[in-house]
Specification:
Number of strands: 4
CATH topology: Oxidized Rhodanese, domain 1
CATH architecture: 3-Layer(aba) Sandwich
Strand content: 5-15%
Distance between the termini: 21 Å
Helix content: 25-40%
Number of helices: 3
CATH superfamily: Rhodanese-like domain
């Protein structure tokens, strides 16, 4: 999913689960409003925190870790996962 697609959908009020897989020190610099921080290394142990029935957009710094996170989710039965292309480096929307 592109940054502009996600920004448009969020501004339209669509409900999308945002999972930021960066480390807490990276998230401290800002993350997309409403995102949940689950560092990639913790993801396998925290799968129950993610609603498998809802679309989840996975976010990292540039797209690499989020690609791996999508693979982990798909391997564990999640069907509605998307990687944010370019990660936070490509994000131009609001951050908290």
């Amino acid at each position: 999913m592109t940054s502009s697609d996600l920004d448009r959908r969020l501004k339209a009020g669509e409900k999308v689960v945002l999972i930021d897989v960066r480390e807490p020190s990276e998230v401290a610099e800002g993350m997309i409003s409403g995102a949940i921080n689950i560092p990639l290394g913790e993801l396998p142990d925290r799968l129950k925190e993610i609603d498998a029935d809802k679309e989840a957009v996975i976010i990292c710094r540039s797209g690499g870790r989020s690609t791996r996170a999508c693979e982990i989710l798909l391997e564990n039965g999640f069907q509605h996962v998307k990687n944010l292309s370019g990660g936070m480096l490509g994000w131009s929307g609001d951050v908290e």
